[in-house]
Write a structure and sequence with these properties.
There is one protein chain. The chain is of the alpha+beta class. The protein has 3 helices and 4 strands. The protein has one domain: 2-Layer Sandwich (Alpha-Beta Plaits), CATH 3.30.70.100. A hairpin with a 6-residue loop joins strand 2 and strand 3. The radius of gyration is 14 Å and the shape is globular.
């Protein structure tokens, strides 16, 4: 298993907008081959969020990423995300992990 983990902050007054965008994005990710997408909100700090995208392996991640980069639906959602959340202040941090056990 190979996962992409994103950490970001979403203003609490934008939670509904974020969830609306994320639900559409998850459908696109799954249609393009991502195994699963999980979204978590921090239990102590409601502005902190984590997203986990699962892939079979690194090669699978790279194939899916290429199709996502070319999908105009995702580009439009990303523009909407940037507009709603003033993206320069809320850019996600991304980390990649291999499953070991």
């Amino acid at each position: 298993m190979y996962v992409a983990v994103y950490h970001y902050r979403i203003p609490t007054d934008k939670t509904i907008d974020y969830m609306r965008i994320e639900k559409r994005a998850i459908d696109i990710y799954l249609q393009n081959g991502c195994i699963s997408v999980e979204i978590y909100r921090d239990a102590e700090e409601p502005e902190k969020w984590m997203e986990i995208n699962r892939f079979e392996n690194r090669e699978h991640y790279e194939r899916v990423s290429a199709t996502l980069d070319a999908d105009p639906r995702l580009s439009r959602l990303f523009e909407e995300f940037q507009h709603i959340f003033e993206f320069e202040n809320y850019e996600p941090e991304k980390s990649m992990y291999f499953q070991m056990i």
